[in-house]
Design goal:
single chain; alpha+beta; five-stranded mixed sheet; 4 helices; about 15% helix; elongated
Length: about 220
Amino acid sequence: NISEVPQLFIATPSDYRLGPGDELIINLYGASENSYSVQISRNGTVKFDRLAPVYLSGLSIASAKARLKNRLSKLYAGLASDDQLSKVDIDVSLNKARSVVVNITGQVTAPGTYTISGFSSVLNALFAAGGPNEVGSFRNIKVLRNGKVYKTVDLYDYFVKGISPSVYLRDQDVILVDAYNKQVDVISGLKTNALYELKENETVEDVLNFAGGFSSNAFK
């Protein structure tokens, strides 16, 4: 019942990678002042008058700022100057995140192709698809990128430990939810009696941790 929607009005995460469709605002201030609003093209570049295209796709905001400062210093010499009178500073921010198309397949409630915000994590995408179905695994969710397994996500890290999977999705990523391997049904005696999924090397001790330990009236 968790309403898991992407946070669209937050500072750009440090691990967010720019891509085609992202809109940037570039502000120059100091000895020279100017403002540019640019969109990254399908080729992964942005264009300025009198300059060759600047390739930004795949870079973080910090790396893009450094590259833009280097390239724009040909137009604004103050960007490369330490003199306080002629110095120009640059600020780069993300104005609008792109939309990405991801494919969600395997044991989910509504498999298919989804268009979601570029800020979306694996959790956001799974929520859009209704989550794993009755035989779907919460412990073995694969993110495939360019035909290879990029990351494997264990949602118990989020549900039990509160560690959110910070994997940002890219266009044409595939999320594959396998069927569960092993389940244990806790009927009574623990604080949270429910159905728990176990990995191959996990034991009764792990079930106790997932369930929050013994209830106060349990026979230990």
